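Curious: why these numbers?
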Amino acid sequence: MRTRAVESDWGRVDTERSPTTHDDAVLRSARWGLVAVVVLAAGYLTSTARGLWFGGDEWFIITDRGLTDGPGHLGLFEPHFEHWSTLPILAFRGLYSVFGLHTYWPYIALPIVAHLVIVVLLWQVMVRSRIDPWVATCACGVFAAAGTGFENLINAWQVQLIAPLALGLAAILVAPESGRRFTGRDAIASTFMAAAMMCSGVALPMLAVVGLVLLVRRGWRVAALTVVVPTVMYAWWYLVYGRKGPRVAAPAPRKVPDFVWRGLTDTLGDVARLEVVGVLVVLAVAGWLAYRLGRRGFESDLAVPVALAVGGVLLILADRLGSKTRRESSLTLADA
């Protein structure tokens, strides 16, 4: 029998029914299933990373980056191509000062740990959005295993792209789900997003996701106060450092919709190695969302899934805007 939703908080779960012993048992078993997923994924990724060594961007960060800029090297704030990457640079420099080049494990542990953190946070986000705990666990099992974008997990420097997603999900979870006042937990969420800004441009779509979730749940004032500091920080960095990086070429507008569509369907289809699966998933989700909005209107449990979907589209758009820059940079490095 359906009753009103129970307001969730950190460590509690949104449900459409009052908690029961059966619900608690399902939740506990699903959590143990999540633990198994994380342990198996950690073992698989660690096994896959055996024998790997430094390469590409990692050598550039180790040999050509310092705490300050100077002859022959860049500092902490100069863009890595188009990205503000101060925190990953600091992490690499710190590991280098302790371990040097004697082992690759501390470096490759960065993206692996960040990925596993995302798995756990994503499960929590799904369960709080009233998705069945075991469905959430199975979805995380697919995400945790090797699939689309797997190469990002076996390249240590790719932590710059993975970390903003973990920080963004953490910001969503730590912020209260109700109330019109800016709280200490909102300040923590803002701090997470400020840190994300200093990792890579992936933080920009995630900041939009966090702002949209807070706007829907708690109004424009809390949303604005939460995103203002990360926004000002990034604006400062871009004006002082970022605009001096490689110039981003604007794509032909008529090609953008096709690029976004292929980005969504290819990403989902590649999970099953069948492009048609991605098309079916996108169409099914769009149809289900339209049906639900038509029947029940917009409810709070849709805030995070819809915001993350919007963030995915924004990320693909950002990738499209920067694609020419990355191709030209790659060609330049290859020529050198």
